[in-house]
């Protein structure tokens, strides 16, 4: 019995070694599009976020706001719902949208409610533990003018080894004071997968 267990152990190590030797890892550019499974991936996040933010920043609401308020609008990127059957991390898409907004320089972006609470907790602790000269004051937060919401849906058409998946990302921007929807757009990415 012991001999059999030893033989099994050696066999397991040999298989592990064989698989370990066949793996090859190559560094690639983060901008390079690589589709392995055909599922939603980081390239889709980047492409859609960039396209949607280009669209929202060229729409009429921003010029209208700047004309009436004489300043850049302040935006919160709120929730993003995944309504597909796949696991898609909404935080990655929200991060990509925030990157595009901030780097455009055309709007100011403030934290969403989750991170605002963390900042307020830090500010509260500063009142007790930081020096009077360096403790940050209450009541100086930047109030947002608009909040962005979004969702992603998918439709799959499949026959034998072929599959077509259409992902549609919808975003909208709402005025926080009036609840008016000032901008709304959708973008679709369609993928053909042949297994």
UniProtKB/TrEMBL annotation:
GO terms for cellular component: periplasmic side of cell outer membrane. GO terms for molecular function: enzyme regulator activity. One of its GO terms (biological process) is peptidoglycan biosynthetic process. InterPro entries: LpoB. PROSITE patterns: PROKAR_LIPOPROTEIN (PS51257). It comes from the Bacteria. It holds the Pfam family LpoB. This is Penicillin-binding protein activator LpoB. It comes from Aureibacter tunicatorum. The lineage of its organism: Bacteria, Pseudomonadati, Bacteroidota, Cytophagia, Cytophagales.
